[in-house]
């Protein structure tokens, strides 16, 4: 490095950078508070003098005179306009205004509502905040001086008043003698007063005994009025509900009357149809036996015919040559007899069809009965709703009748209750009749299902009629065959064919008659069931008609009662508002009366207690007036003695000053700091030394290797020796030159030792970051500088600094250097504390020196040694023959 003049020059300049940084900064703020007499402050006096206790009071003028003598600031007495322009044009840091009522307010000290003296000042903090702070401190001291001056004026005035008090004492002694004379008269009047108090107390005690029952009666009256108001509200609410229900019932009354009329008409039609149905079914039932008998005979004849035809067919087919004409003739005779039976059966079927037509006609009339009964069910549903409404109306009206005390209203409500109960009884009777109608509806449903089978019976009878017609035609054909039997031998072939047809027709006839007989039996069973149901319907028709008539009559009475009740409730509703208003007014008035009664009772009790106390204390009053009479003379003597003592007091101006400023402050320095520069020096010296280490690690090529192949420890030792030597020179130069230029140091060895240790710690930290991480490490070192600027506590106490900096405070090296340097410059922290701070700095140095060695070993093993992002900048330094000071000649 000695052979590279540029590098050597850089090394020398770097060593003096901390000193230059410190001297320029510290000298700029070396003693700002020692030159405050150059800080311009404008003073505007608008105060007006006033008279106070016979003296002229001009506090503003006195203050201006004091300021002209004061050299703490550069006080300039100017006009209001000049001060305003000077503040706007940055000439003045502060403008002090003494208002026009300054002295006037000072004279209000003895008033009932004294006003404070207000001294106004306006600052321009943007021009310079420290200037504002200095101005505020000066204003605080100025305010204290004003207080002392005004208090001194007050004290002087009070001293004069004390002298006047001495004269007043003499006059008071004369008055005390007159008081003694008046006390004799007072004693006589007191005796008369005591006698009157006893009489008044007797009357008040009697009043107290009489007023006690009043509270109980008023309380009961208020409670009863509240209950009355509540009952009236319930009553009016019930009347409203009753009126709404009755209005709805009245609106539905017309529909109910129409429904009951329709029901009565339908019931009459229904009973008429039931009678006709019963008559027709009875006729059918009477003919059922003949119909079943004829059907049985017809079925039996058809069976015989089928058997004969089968036998005939078998005979013809088995032996045409040996025909038994006698048997054939016998069969023909049986066929003739069967034809007469067919005539009887034909007559029975005709009668059955006639009866079935009549039954169908009656069945069509019965189809209207279910619709009439459905009207009855609808009416029953309406009656159920009416029953529930009437029951609710009866209960509500009965409750309202119990709660009201008005006779007319109660009579109207009782009438409503009676009519509602009558309607309920009528509806219950109608309910029984409607239940019977519902049972008839069930019977009608069963009968209707039986009558629906009439159509199938009609079809069956039609089929039977067709079968009989075919049988009649067959028998007629057989009778024709009877005449031709004589020619039978010649016509055997035709006979064979005829017998086959006869057998087939007879079988068909027998099958049809079996079906017809089963249908006739089913039909006659249905006719019997229908006849029985019709008889039951006819038996219940009278009850149904009577119930419908009763229902119509009861509904008419019910609707009339509903209309009358609706009219009555309308009148009740109209009167409800007035009734509620009156009840509420009564309750409010009685509650107010009840609320006042305790006050009355309490007042009477207090009056009785007071009069009793007057009576009890009357003897003391009499004794007191006697003592007053005796003490009046003594008072006169004491006042004369006091006047003599007051007049003997002769206060001076020193006493007035003592009133104005009774205390003084005595300051003792535990440690002495001469000025602001000495206070800020530990902070600035530490910052400058850290900046010097940063610049060194930017300028000096710490990553360059003089000789490759050697151990990393040799590389580490060479760089560390240069760095530590450089920072030691920085610390000694910075501290020594600052002492030569005026920095007063109390403990010189401790001062320099702390500077050197902080320089070593800073160099170790910055060199480790720069060596390990190159430019990013240097950036981290700069960030660490910024953190130490705010978190080391170099300017303001940490207690007034934000929480973040308090958290990192004890982890920053500069914290310990500032504390050590403060103790070295002005003392006050203790040698043991400085030893602790220096130990922390030494520990930081050792830790980061070891980390630097580890880092350089890593860089060499991974072939990063000698490579730096600053190489291009460092080419300006030229070739370096001896990087480590060991005069190595072999370079690679």
TrEMBL record:
Q: Where in the cell is it found?
A: Membrane
What keywords tag this UniProt record?
Membrane, Transmembrane, Transmembrane helix
Q: Where are the transmembrane segments?
A: 680-700, 720-745, 751-772, 779-798, 833-859
- How does it sit in the bilayer? Multi-pass membrane protein
Principal subcellular localization: membrane
Name of the protein = YhgE/Pip domain-containing protein
Entries under Gene3D superfamilies matching the protein: 1.10.287.1490, abc type-2 transporter like domain
**Gene Ontology CC: one annotated term:** membrane
Q: Which organism is it from?
A: Limosilactobacillus fermentum
């Amino acid at each position: 490095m000695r052979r590279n003049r540029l590098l050597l020059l850089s090394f020398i300049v770097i060593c003096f950078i901390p000193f230059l940084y410190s001297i320029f900064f510290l000298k700029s703020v070396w003693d700002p508070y020692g030159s405050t007499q150059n800080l311009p402050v404008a003073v505007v006096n608008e105060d007006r003098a006033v008279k106070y206790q016979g003296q002229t009071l001009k506090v503003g003028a006195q203050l201006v005179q004091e300021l002209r003598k004061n050299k703490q600031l550069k006080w300039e007495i100017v006009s209001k306009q000049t001060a305003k322009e000077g503040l706007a044009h940055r000439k003045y840091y502060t403008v002090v205004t003494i208002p026009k009522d300054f002295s006037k307010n000072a004279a209000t000290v003895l008033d009932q509502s004294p006003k404070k003296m207000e001294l106004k000042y306006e600052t321009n903090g943007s021009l310079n905040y420290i200037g504002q702070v200095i101005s505020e401190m000066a204003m605080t001291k100025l305010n204290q001086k004003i207080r002392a001056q005004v208090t001194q004026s007050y004290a002087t005035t009070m001293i004069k008043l004390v002298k006047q008090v001495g004269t007043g004492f003499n006059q008071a002694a004369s008055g005390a003698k007159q008081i003694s004379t008046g006390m004799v008269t007072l004693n006589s009047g007191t005796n008369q007063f005591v006698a009157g108090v006893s009489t008044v107390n007797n009357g008040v005690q009697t009043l107290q005994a009489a007023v006690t029952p009043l509270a109980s009666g008023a309380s009961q009256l208020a409670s009863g009025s509240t209950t009355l108001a509540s009952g009236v509200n319930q009553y009016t609410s019930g009347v409203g509900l009753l009126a709404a229900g009755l209005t709805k019932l009245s609106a539905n009354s017309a529909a109910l009357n129409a429904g009951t009329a329709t029901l009565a008409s339908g019931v009459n039609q229904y009973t008429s149809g039931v009678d006709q149905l019963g008559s027709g079914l009875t006729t059918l039932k009477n003919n059922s036996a003949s119909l079943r008998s004829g059907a049985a005979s017809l079925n039996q004849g058809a069976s015989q015919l089928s058997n004969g035809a089968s036998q005939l067919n078998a005979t013809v087919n088995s032996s045409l040559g040996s025909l038994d004409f006698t048997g054939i003739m016998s069969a023909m005779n049986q066929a003739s007899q069967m034809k007469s039976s067919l005539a009887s059966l034909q007559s029975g079927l005709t009668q059955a069809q006639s009866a079935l037509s009549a039954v169908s006609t009656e069945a069509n009339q019965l189809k209207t009965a279910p619709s009439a009964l459905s009207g009855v069910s609808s009416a029953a549903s309406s009656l159920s709703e009416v029953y529930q409404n009437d029951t609710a109306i009866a209960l509500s009206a009965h409750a309202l009748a119990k709660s009201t005390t008005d006779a007319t209203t109660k009579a109207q409500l009782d009438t409503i209750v009676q009519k509602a109960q009558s309607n309920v009884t009528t509806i219950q009777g109608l309910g029984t009749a409607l239940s019977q109608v519902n049972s008839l509806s069930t019977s009608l449903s069963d009968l209707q299902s039986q009558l629906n089978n009439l159509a199938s019976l009609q079809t069956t009878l039609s089929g039977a009629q067709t079968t009989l017609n075919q049988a009649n035609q067959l028998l007629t054909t057989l009778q024709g065959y009877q005449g031709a039997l004589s020619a039978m031998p010649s016509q055997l072939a035709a006979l064979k064919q005829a017998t086959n047809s006869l057998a087939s027709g007879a079988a068909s006839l027998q099958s049809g008659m079996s079906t017809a007989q089963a249908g006739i039996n089913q039909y006659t069973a249905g006719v019997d069931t229908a006849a029985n149901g019709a008889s039951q319907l006819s038996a219940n028709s009278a009850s149904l008609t009577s119930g419908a008539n009763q229902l119509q009559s009861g509904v008419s009475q019910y609707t009339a009662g509903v209309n009358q009740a609706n009219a009555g409730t309308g009148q009740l509703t109209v009167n409800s508002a007035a009734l509620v208003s009156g009840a509420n007014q009564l309750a409010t008035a009685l509650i107010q009366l009840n609320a006042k009664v305790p006050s009355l009772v309490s007042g009477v009790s207090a009056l009785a207690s007071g009069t009793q106390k007057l009576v009890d204390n009357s003897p003391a009053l009499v004794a007191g007036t006697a003592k007053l009479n005796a003490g009046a003379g003594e008072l006169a003597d004491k006042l004369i003695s006091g006047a003599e003592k007051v007049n003997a007091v002769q206060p001076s101006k020193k006493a007035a000053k003592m009133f104005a400023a009774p205390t003084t402050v005595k300051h003792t320095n535990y440690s002495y700091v001469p000025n602001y520069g000495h206070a800020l020096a530990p902070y600035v010296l530490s910052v400058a030394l850290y900046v010097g280490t940063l610049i060194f690690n930017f300028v000096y090529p710490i990553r360059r290797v003089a000789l490759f192949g050697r151990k990393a420890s040799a590389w580490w030792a060479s760089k560390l020796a240069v760095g530590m030597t450089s920072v030691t020179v920085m610390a000694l130069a910075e501290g020594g030159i600052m002492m030569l230029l005026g920095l007063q140091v109390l403990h010189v060895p401790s001062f320099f030792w702390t500077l050197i240790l902080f320089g070593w710690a800073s160099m170790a930290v910055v060199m480790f970051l720069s060596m390990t991480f190159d430019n990013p490490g240097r950036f981290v070192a700069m960030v660490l500088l910024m953190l130490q600027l705010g978190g080391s506590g170099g300017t303001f106490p940490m207690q007034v600094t934000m929480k973040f900096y308090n958290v990192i405070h004890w982890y920053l090296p500069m914290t310990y250097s500032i504390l050590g340097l403060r103790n070295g410059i002005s003392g006050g922290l203790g040698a043991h504390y400085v030893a602790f701070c220096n130990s922390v700095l030494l520990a930081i140095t050792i830790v980061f020196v070891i980390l630097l060695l580890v880092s350089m070993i890593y860089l060499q093993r991974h072939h990063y040694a000698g490579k730096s992002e600053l190489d291009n900048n460092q080419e300006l330094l030229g070739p370096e023959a001896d990087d480590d000071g060991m005069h190595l000649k072999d370079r690679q």
